[in-house]
Request: fold
Amino acid sequence: MHDPSAKLASGYLMFSTLIPQRFYSLPGNVQGGIILMFAAAGFSTMIALIKLAGENLHVAQILLVRQVIMGVILAPAIFRGFPGSLKTNHLGLQLLRIVLALIAMGFGFTAVVNMPLADATAIGFAKSFFVTICAIFILNEVIGVRRWAAVIIGFLGVLIILRPGTDSFTIYGVYALIGAAGAGTVMVVIRLLTRTESATTIMTYQALGVGLAVAIPGILLWKWPTTYEWYLLIGMGLISYVAQMFNILAYKYGEASVMASLDYVRLIYSVIFGYFLFSHSPDLWTLLGAAVIIGASIYTIHREAQNKQVLIRTAEGRGKIG
Reply:
């Protein structure tokens, strides 16, 4: 069965036409790596725009605008099979996927708005470890000692960044971790749904469910954006879609494990945006914790590749979940 995000983002063909022909003579991983740099830049730009918009607007409102923009873009694909696309064999899992997406975006975006970008981005990488844990209980996978060690070391990296018990600790760091847990669990639930559900059904429940869920709080907390803020919000939605297209293209040309490992370049972009837009520079503890998290994550990805598993090494897993 096709991967849901790949089906959802069938528009990637439009982007492939923009690539120079000389590009296709390069090795596959080089092709994928180049495209992934654009995808990572796009996702990092989206996060920076969320942080800028969040200086004056509530996260619920930002989420609502994002879902409306994504819904408009995806409407043709959604309504092509509607209402038959609402027929599902696992309504409970579909609803769980919506709840987890709300947790991932709600807590994750709140952390981004209130924390330095580098810190929030680094903690967000912990979703790989939650994938490993959830795979045991949801997919009945057997995890070896080395992957358990990578998970434990990865969470030590999170603690290095959070520094609980010190003046540097904030509740928003916990929010970032909760968002990572939601994102990681979503990846596992999607993998489970693809066994029996069509990509169109998963996409329809995602778009309609998340959109309806954020509508009420988004409207109640609505504050009319300025012209500048409208630019931020519209740019956020459009760039999110474009970044997802490039993300899928990267996995089309490059090996999944290599692409997933390169994806951590997002931290570099976050440091750059944090410095120039918000005058934030990551301290030594953040850099050390990020290095531990990324190292443990990459090891987990390559262990997954060796075991021929496809949970973390997927395009949707490295992208967004809402």
